[in-house]
Amino acid sequence: MAERASESEMQVLAALWDESPQTAAELAQRVGEANGWTQATVKTLLARLVQKGAVTAEADGRRYLYSPAIERADTVGEESQRFVDRLFGGRVSPLIAHLAEREALSDADIAEIEALLRRLKS
């Protein structure tokens, strides 16, 4: 995706990753109601996502069916890297240290990180 998606656009995109294709009306019901957005707002967000190349729109009679044009894993990877670059100078260890200091890591999180580190070492 050439241009980054806004938080609102990411919510629409996440709904499409969960289930697609969907119409604007379906998306308005799924994410619009939860955010207080009208169907017109959802259509605006979809138009922006189509323009950015993140979503495709296929005509289906008088309506359009929307599907993601980018993979969730690719987007998560790009966004994660931007976050780490911006806040932690591109280093992951200060992020983990920050979360540990704030007691934001559960025992399960710590076990998963330890398992990941073991796999990376071998």
Spell out the blueprint of helices and strands.
Blueprint lengths: L6 H12 L5 H12 L3 H13 L3 E6 L2 E6 L3 H17 L4 H9 L5 H15 L1
Antiparallel strand pairs: 1-2
What can you see in these coordinates?
- The protein is built from 6 helices and 2 strands.
- By secondary structure, it is mainly α.
- It has a two-stranded antiparallel sheet with strand order 1-2.
> How many strands appear in the DSSP assignment?
2
Strand content is: 5-15%
How many H/I helices? 6
Largest sheet geometry: 2 strands, antiparallel
What is the H-and-E element order?
HHHEEHHH
Percentage of residues in helical conformation: 55-70%
The secondary structure category is: mainly alpha
What global shape is seen?
Answer: elongated
What is the average per-residue confidence, as pLDDT, rounded to a whole number? 94
Q: Note the quaternary state here.
A: single chain
Evaluate the radius of gyration: 18 Å
* Spatial gap, N to C terminus: 34 Å
**Side-by-side strand order of the widest sheet:** 1-2
What are the segments in which pLDDT stays under 50 over at least 5 consecutive residues?
A: none
